[in-house]
Amino acid sequence: MQALPDTTALRAPRALSDLLLYRLWRATRASRGMVTRIVEGGFGITHREWGMIGMLAKVGEIRPSALAERLQLDRVRTSRGLRTLLEKRLIERRQNADDGREVHVRLSAAGMRLFDDLFPRIASLNTALLDGLDTEHHDVFLQCLRQLESRGNALSERNAAPQRADLRPAGGTRHH
Q1: DSSP letter assigned to residue 42
Q2: Percentage, residues of the chain above pLDDT 90
Q3: Number of H helices and number of E strands within the chain?
Q4: Pairwise CA distance, residues 6 & 13, whole Å
Q5: In this predicted model, what pLDDT tens digit does every residue of 29-76 receive, in sequence order?
Q6: Cα–Cα distance between 153 and 162 in angstroms, integer?
Q7: For residue 131, how far is the Cα from the chain centroid?
Q8: Are 103 and 94 in contact (CB under 8 A)?
Q9: Nearest to 121, CA basis, from 28, 16, 50
Q10: 62 beta partners
Q11: pLDDT tens track for 77-96
Q12: Is 134 helix (H, G, I), strand (E, B) or coil?
């Protein structure tokens, strides 16, 4: 395991391991593999599909665009994920009777059963991860997470990173 930076290094990073986002990525990566094995290996769904199922279990019926917004996903990826969940019969679509262009999605009975089977396993993993922190640090940790999320949203709204990735094979015509 790499040594953790001190607060001075976090405020003036000089190496990859000093970057807050890199440390958060490593912390997430350490447990994400376990979740992947549970959802993909045990239930045949992806992380994204699990997020959609979890949100649908919480909100009930919703428009796909509103689901994308809640999950902070683009509409194209949300649409693809919903199409796959529909093919797996884990969700149902309903067209608005008054406006046939408006569609709503919700979990099917099979989707709800999957959520009911899967959620306790993921919750148990989350609890096991939290057990690694001293109880007196739980509130501070959650407060820090809230502040980081809020700050990240504020920076995003200010367009702090305006560059867009060009993922075309040859790099496209963008200047590098």
Answers
A1: I
A2: 54
A3: 8, 2
A4: 10
A5: 888 889 999 999 989 999 999 999 999 999 999 999 999 999 989 999
A6: 14
A7: 22
A8: yes
A9: 50
A10: 105
A11: 999 999 999 999 999 999 87
A12: coil
